Every structure is written in structure tokens, then in C-alpha cells.
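It would be a great kindness if you could assist me with a short task in structural biology. The full record is reproduced below for your convenience:
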Amino acid sequence: MSSLSLEQFAESTVQDTLATAEANNESPHDAFAGSVLQDLERAGVIEEHFVSYYRSHGLEASGYGRNEVIGSLDLYLVSFRQHPLMQKVGKSELATMAKRAFTYLAKAEGGLWRQIDEADDSHDMAQAVEQYLSEANAIRIFMITNDVATSSAVPAGDFKGRPVSYEVWDLQRLHRLATSGVLHEPIMVNFSNALPCLTTPETDKNYSVLLAIVPGKTLAEIYGQYGARLLELNVRAFLQLKGAVNRGIRETLINRPERFLAYNNGISATASEVKLASLPDGGVGISKIKDLQIVNGGQTTAALHHALTADHLDLERVLVQMKLTVVQPEFLSTIVPEISKFSNTQNKVTLTDFSSNHEFHVELEKLSRTLWAPAVHGTGQETKWFFERARGQYANALSREKTPAAKKRFRLIYPSKQKFTKTDVAKWGMSWSQKPQIVSRGGEKNFRAFMETVGSMVPTTDKTFVQRLIAKGILFRETERLVTDQQFGGYRANIVTYAIAKLSNATAMKVDFDSIWANQGLTTDLAQALVDLSYVAHDVITQPPPGVTNVGEWAKRDACWAKMLTAEWTVPSRLESELLDTKGTRRVKQQSEEASATNEDQQNIKIVNSLSADSWFALAKWAKETGNLKPWQRSLAFSLGKIVAGESDPSLKQARQGAIIVNEALSLGFKP
């Protein structure tokens, strides 16, 4: 359990956010939004998230997502203030935030995306929100702040017949999430009519068991309120009614609901505390459950909710049996997974589902604490990469250092930019494994897919394996920085993973990760190749086929990766010389790119260098203001300005495109 006080957590949140923003070359708002939403996704509060900030007169949004299981559109509005003090955010300010988010919904439904530059990811957000609004059963608005809310109650509303609920996540609630020792906030369920139950003889002082019958509609409504959070300690997610067991559940609900109790095995659940009440006709009933988790029967529960909300079935005659195990809080993390493991028999279960305690992550955590990374930039200061197997470990370790000098030394050894998580490892691995469409589906979905790939992996204590894993992380984070520098305006996450996947494919996975580890960075030629690939990825991602209007959804499809695979790009000769042969040794140095450049290539370079850096910057600005040129051409013009300012030559491909841009801009009236 974390020992951070609320005050320490407030300061740590600001410092971590600013460090992350600087490392990723993004705004503090986006860094804070990304961090919090990732935590909420891990905790099962939300199912997916995409960060994109848009603000205009009277409306504002910081990101969006949807929960396919409960059928909701989720809209996020984030407020980050750069101060370590715990300032207050009052009821009126929360009401204003709620109103701005609600107005955004109305504008999005009315075609807001048509008013936004298509190169901006907020254009895609507005387009996606409009689409999801037409499909959603409910709308959830999350208001997130690093201030302390004086009130968390925001009245529910209605948007054209769909219920709108508001959730406030302030500093105190985020602190509870980070320091509770578990990833979820305890689920508290109150029953207006106590559930009749039977108690069983005590066989172990650490737990007790109750048997009860739950109305199917009640169980469906509980799932509708809490979603996947109910299944966090379960060993698998809802299988979308695809298996034979789930199809049987649905058929029973449709054809013989009164026999559901007889045909279905019911659910097994756990709790840390149960409140019992006396029933009017004698006996006892369950009136309150604290920290409810369904460890077996997640399929049943989700199927009931699906039947209620999607199929609109009457569940009044449906009853479900429940075995409720009340476990002492300190044993939740050990006993509950065992209950899940041994009681789940309806579908295949693997130990990879218990991800936090998977040996792969345990071994990785141990090695990350002992493995020294080479010093860089002539500092002479060796450092370590810090793997956070559980959220808050970094802040916890830092808080244990008692003096300012000790804290400073900790930060020197473990720079915050060298902190990484399980979801980071999954993104690095799946990108290099050429699965960018899965990475684009969001952190948790990608993580689940990644865990399937490491399920049979023997835990390794080989430092070379870990060094190369971290080298993939360096490649990924440097690509993020390079893509940001190109100023595409949006879709950075998609461009990064697609560019890396294409590099992996084109080089037959022969990038020298030992060299990346030794230098803690990329070579100039590898970095330039990734810049070039980012333009290829941008073109593929932002040009979906007819009938597909949502760029974000297009990037999740196998067809998008198939198109990227066929996109024209060859490994430059300079980079070719850095690759490894099939035996893992470096290739013989090949002829340089300059030597193979044609006269036309040399002429293109001269054209690019004939414009000053300021002229290139002015061209990019002119093109954006007038709407001339394609978005990627505007971005390339800005990049060429930076190259010229640095007194270096563009790549041959950049020069070829740059010459085309110059000629086209001059013909359209641009004057350098």
C-alpha cells in the first residue's frame, strides 16, 4: 500500500505530469489526461480512451471513448493546474465544466467536425463522437481535476432520450485510487429489498460464505452501473456471446426465462464486508455488499445486461443463484485469484489472466532494479530503468527517501522519463511484432493481446533480454518525439506504432537493439528512417477507404495494416549498413546514400537549401492559413525549415518532396 499523503500525492502528480510532458514533447494537459485515463482504464472504470483536446466558446472536451459492453459513449473533460497546492474547485465550477461538456455533445451531433482542420485529431474526435452518439444507450461525462472538489454530486441529465451521468474524479479520489492497494475503488451495492440468504458453517477464520438468490434484472443493473469493474479480479473478460455457453444463456433468457435458475450455474462473488438485515418473515437477508467482485459468472452477468439493454428482454422472471464469499480485506489479493482460478471451468482459463503477478512481470521488475544503463551525453552518470509492476511504485520508492539529497540521488539514478509500465511493455512489444492495429485499439485491449503472447514464455533472468526490451522502449519513445516534431496535428499514437511496425517488417526485424541500448538512443540514420516512415504511416492512416469516415476506427482494422504493408518504402542504404545479418552480426558498410544520389537528387537538395529556414516556416504557415497543399506537405515544409536552420541536408526523399512543394506553392501564389 502506498504511503503517500494527499499533500505528497498532489506534488508528485504535478511533478510527474510536467516531467512526462517534457519527455514526450506534449502539453501538461495531455500528459495528465493520458496518465489518469490510463489508470481509469486499468481499473475498469472506462473501457478505452483517446486523448484529444478541443475548446471553443462555451464548449470543451479532452477526449472520448466508448464502453461497448454497457453501450455508453464516454466523454472526458480534464482540468490540470500546475501547482502542488490543493486548491478547491467548487460546485459552480463543476457545473460550468458539465455544461461545457454537454454543449460539446450537442455541437458534435450537429457536425462540429466540419469546422475543424482535418489534420487535427480533434477533427477525428468530433467525428467519432457524432457517430457514437447515434449508437449509444447512455452517455457518461467524466470531469477530472488535480484540485479538490468541494462536492462530487452533479445532477444526472438527459440528451435526447439518453441518460447522461457525471463522474467527478478530483485529487482526493485519484489519491484513493493510487493508494488503496488495489486498482479499483471499492464497489458498494445497496439493496432496497434485502436478498434472502443462507449462512454456512465457518471453516476458515479468514472467510465466510453466504448463499442467495439475486433477481436477474438487479444483477444486470449492477453491471450496467459498474461494468468491467465487477470483473476485475475475474480471470477473463466477457466473451461477447460467441461461445456455446454464452449462446445457451441467451437462448434461455429469450425462450425459457423462468427456467434460468434451473439451467444456469449462477455466479460466484467475493466481498470484503456484508451487512445483514432481519427479514419480516424471519431469517436474514443481504442489505449491503462492500467491494463486490464477480469471480465466476462474468459471462452470465454480462449476458443479462446485454439482454436487458440491447435485446430489451423482460427479466422479471429471471433469478440467479449467488455464492458470496466474504474475505478479510488483507486476503483479497491472495484468496480471490485462487477462487477465480479453481472455479472457472466453463471456458478455457490460463494463468496469463492474472497479469500483475505473472512471473514475466515479477522477473522484469526484479531486473529493472538492478540493471544499470550506460551513461549518455558525456555525463558519466549511469542510470536505471524503473519498471512499475503496480501503479505508484515509483512515487512510493521516492517517498521513502527522507532527505532532499537522497531524493535528488534517487531521481538521478531513476529519472522519471525512464519509468515504464506493463502497458508500455505491451505497446513496445506489439508494435515491433507488427500488430499496430491491435495497439491502436487502446491500452487494455492491446495488453490483453500481449499477455496471450507471453503466456507460455519462460520467465527470464537474462539481462540481454531485458536490455533489448528496454531498447524497444527507447525506439518507441524516440519515435514519439520524432513524430511530434513533424507536427502532423493528430493521430500521433497511431502513426508511431504503424511506423515502427513497418520498420520491423521492412528490415526483417534486424534492427540492432544492442547498439540502441549501448547508446541509449537512435542513430541519425535510424531516426531519419522513422521520420520518413511517419509520413508513410500518416498518409495510410488519414486516408481511409470509401465508407470509413472515422480515422481512429480505420487504424484499428487489419485492412489498415495490410495497406501499410503494401505502402512504398525501402530501407535506405545508410540504414541497411547498420542492420544485423541472419547471424546477428553487423552488415558490411555499404555505399553511402550521397554516393548513389542522382543528378536530379542533387538538384532537389539545392532547391530545398535555396530557401531560408524562415521561408520554409512562412510557407508552412501560408499553406495552413490558405488551405493549400496537403496536411503532410505543410508538416514537411515546417520540418524542412528546421533542417535548413540546423545547416544539414534533407534526405533524398525529403528533398524530392520538398522540390514538389516549392514548385506547387509558387504556382499557387506563395512568395518566399
In short: The CA atoms of residues 250 and 303 lie 7 Å apart. Residues 463-485 form the longest helix (23 residues).
